[in-house]
Design goal:
The protein has a three-stranded mixed beta sheet. The protein is globular. The protein contains 22 helices and five strands.
Length: 502
């Protein structure tokens, strides 16, 4: 894989501007300076978003090369480099992460009243670390960023979470850390096999035996499956979502789950293509279980956050399904593009749905569906957004939720009709649990005096949900800019995987 050097350190700015801003926010100290902490956090988040704009303007979607590349020796003794670059597979997630961070800072503006500086600073630092995962082209650097993201999220859940926040934080941390240890072993193995190089792009051309590829695939699977999360290692996610503050749930669903799915595209498929083909049946089976079984589990949830958490698992099952369908030994590029589009769309939709639940929770301090009913009568503007995002979560055409699912189903038909049929059930289950929740929470007569006393969206909440609504509709109506960005890199990946290494 060739690369194009950067004329300016755009990716370094995207990583380090929010991290440095987070440290500055930390320095404001206690809550007597809360107003200053909020202002600095917003400035830092907006600056972090601003530095990603050149990616959107200058990225060449027709090229499969890595672009905006930065390469500096870091730990020379072990040939570890500060090596950054983005291609069509990773580029969209950089501005997406920065965008979501801005929304989270605005969303927590009035809601977070204690340890404000620490809350805002943790999200800014987490933003930079997640962007680092998407940009890292050195295996050691990737692992550092990948593991470092656990620390701020662990603190966010453990400090600002709900009643069982410590249990949820430790469960989240242990699941994701233990899964990553096998990946570290795989990275060290590849370092030795390549003659002492942590260059991920060099690993793509290593002549590995089928046995070695299978073991590497399973080692990567241990980390990435937990992060997605795939069934059956998904049980940490509902607990983490339910206990996390609203901002934590938004970032967890919108960005952190994507780190695992991205790992399959950057490591599993290109490094172990033959192993990926051999074990594709396992991945398809696990993905379909997530789509069908977890969709049914979502149907019976009484807690709104838990329902959306299980919905996220089902939708991410769609993503992993798209990544592992082969036809005559060739990766189906359309399905991979659909999976990536679904990742971006899910970032908008899941973030929006958790923010909607947060709006209600801030007013009623309850996430139980049974405590609501007739919200449209007292919060009509909120109801309009909630219905739009529920429709998008159901995969309604002209919303972003439709784009990825449609492409994955089209690719699945090329692979196997019955796999496509099973995958398409997500459209039915997604509509069932999303719209049933909306029916019980939003519509009908006012359920009780607490609902009757609700106030509609304020300007801050309207701004946050409005920006996500624009994103959901724009991607749904005009998906071409999104798919054009990834097309060249996905085609290159499909060609690479088609070439057997054995």
């Amino acid at each position: 894989m060739t690369s194009m050097p950067a004329s300016a350190p755009i990716l370094s700015l995207a990583i380090w501007v929010p991290i440095i801003a987070g440290l500055v926010v930390f320095a404001t100290g206690n809550d007597r300076n809360a107003a200053l902490a909020r202002a600095l956090a917003l400035i830092g988040a907006l600056a972090g978003l601003a530095v990603t704009v050149p990616l959107l303007i200058d990225f060449n979607g027709a090229s499969a090369q890595f672009q905006f590349v930065e390469r500096i020796d870091w730990i020379e003794r072990f040939h570890i480099q500060y090596y950054l670059g983005v291609d069509g597979i990773s580029m969209l997630f950089v501005p997406l992460t920065a965008f979501i961070t801005v929304l989270v800072v605005i969303a927590g503006w009035e809601v977070i009243e204690t340890r404000v500086a620490q809350y805002m600073g943790a999200f800014l630092i987490l933003s930079g670390l997640m962007i680092g995962v998407f940009c890292a082209l050195d295996g050691a650097l990737f692992y550092v960023f990948f593991e470092a993201t656990l620390i701020p999220m662990f603190i966010i859940i453990g400090v600002w979470g709900g009643q069982n926040r410590v249990y949820a934080a430790f469960k989240f941390f242990l699941y994701t850390l233990l899964g990553s240890l096998l990946t570290l072993v795989a990275i060290i193995y590849l370092y030795l096999e390549s003659g002492g190089s942590f260059d991920i792009t060099a690993w793509h051309s290593l002549p590995l035996s089928l046995g070695a590829q299978k073991l590497l695939f399973l080692a990567f699977l241990a980390a990435f499956a937990v992060k997605v999360p795939m069934w059956p290692v998904h049980t940490w996610l509902p607990d983490a979502h339910v206990q996390a503050p609203t901002g934590g749930s938004v970032v967890l669903a919108a960005i952190m789950l994507k780190l695992g799915a991205y790992g399959f595209l950057r490591f599993s498929l290109p490094i172990a293509p033959d192993g990926s083909r051999e074990l594709a049946g396992l991945m398809i089976a696990l993905s379909l279980i997530a789509v069908v079984y977890i969709g049914l589990v979502a149907l019976v949830q009484q807690d709104m956050k838990k329902l959306v958490a299980y919905s996220s698992i089902a939708h991410m099952g769609f993503v992993t399904l798209g990544f592992f369908m082969f036809r005559d030994g060739t990766l189906i590029g359309m399905a991979v593009e659909g999976g990536i589009a679904q990742m971006v769309s899910h970032g908008f939709i899941s973030g929006a749905m958790f923010l909607c639940i947060g709006v209600l929770y801030d007013r009623m301090h309850s996430r139980e569906i049974s405590d609501y009913g007739g919200v449209v009568n007292t919060m009509p503007r909120f109801a309009a957004f909630a219905v739009l995002f529920a429709m998008a979560n159901s995969g309604l055409p002209a919303t972003s939720g439709f784009v990825g699912e449609f492409l994955v189903i089209l690719g699945a038909i090329k692979f196997n009709f019955w796999v496509a049929f099973a995958a398409a059930t997500t459209l039915i289950f997604g509509a069932a649990y999303s719209l049933w929740m909306v029916k019980r929470v939003i519509f009908g007569a006012v359920a009780n005096d607490r609902v009757a006393a609700l106030t509609d969206l304020n300007a801050r909440e309207f701004l946050v949900l409005g920006m996500l609504a624009v994103a959901v509709l724009y991607m749904g109506i005009h998906p071409k800019p999104f798919t054009d960005v990834m097309h060249g890199s996905v085609e290159q990946l499909a060609r690479h995987v088609a070439k057997s290494k054995i």
